[in-house]
Design a protein that fits this description.
mainly alpha; 41% helix; Toxin-antitoxin system HicB family antitoxin
């Protein structure tokens, strides 16, 4: 897996709580929700870099993924 950048992000507590609830509704972590929203904003603005990788899948591998 490619290296991931770590950043410190300061948020208003009410904004964080709203993001956490939204992430929970979509079965994501708060961190994954923030990355999802940032990527969507970059894409909508036409600023998503070509070199940006896909968001790594988390959780169990699907049944079609095998290491045979």
């Amino acid at each position: 897996m490619a290296d991931r950048k770590k950043i410190l992000l300061r948020l208003d507590p009410a904004v964080h709580d709203a993001l956490a609830r939204w992430a929970n509704d979509e079965l994501r972590s708060t961190n994954a929700q923030i990355e999802f929203l940032l990527r969507r904003a970059l894409t909508d603005a036409g600023r998503m870099p070509d070199a940006a990788g896909r968001i790594p899948r988390r959780g169990r591998p699907s049944k079609t993924d095998s290491d045979e």
